[in-house]
Amino acid sequence: MDKSPIKELLNEQKFRLTSERESLLDVFSRSSSMVTPAQLYELAQQHDIRIGLTTVYRLLEVLTKIGVATPFLVDGTIYYAYCGCNHHHHFVCLSCHRVTDLHNSCPSFHVPENFDVIAHRSDAYGTCPDCRKASEVGCNP
Ligand SMILES: [Zn+2]
Ligand SMILES: [Zn+2]
Ligand SMILES: [Zn+2]
For residue 124, what are the β-bridge partners? Predict the structure, then answer.
């Protein structure tokens, strides 16, 4: 993964990417599901990354600010997904919390005259094919 554009953006935010923090970023970017800060902290510990929970929060906060991470609110809990630098939308599976990037599918918003859209966000929530299959197996009368 080429992290140089992300490193530059982090520098602008005065967030120094130490080797431990970089490992944390790697773990986050490789996670296939969205994670809560506590889950990411646990993943970091499994990878022997010596980092505090505060740093996990701080990294997620800064990544969100520069658009590299996206927060999702599901059932009152905030989860984060790694997004990288390319604009895209998401399909969030509410069962397994896997986030699938949707490229080339930008919705259009109808805004009143004289309003300028600078950025937009839009995500779909539902059931992924795996979870759909899983729910179909079982004792159906
Ligand atoms: Zn994304
Ligand atoms: Zn799923
Ligand atoms: Zn879009």
Answer: 91
CA of 70 to the centre of ligand 1 (A): 6
| Ligand having the closest approach to the CA of 133 | 2
Tell me, in angstroms, the distance from the centre of ligand 3 to residue 121's CA.
7
- Domains for the chain: give ranges and CATH numbers: 4-138 (1.10.10.10)
* Of the candidates 20, 9, 22, the residue with the CA atom closest to the CA atom of residue 51: 20
**pLDDT string in tens for the chain (141-residue length):** 678 889 999 999 999 999 999 999 999 999 989 999 999 999 999 999 999 999 999 999 999 999 999 999 999 999 999 998 889 999 999 999 999 999 988 988 899 999 998 889 899 999 999 999 988 876 655
Task: Give the helix ranges, DSSP H, for 13-118.
Answer: 19-30, 37-46, 53-65
pTM of structure = 0.86
72-to-3, 31, 87 alpha-carbon distances in Å:
23, 15, 16
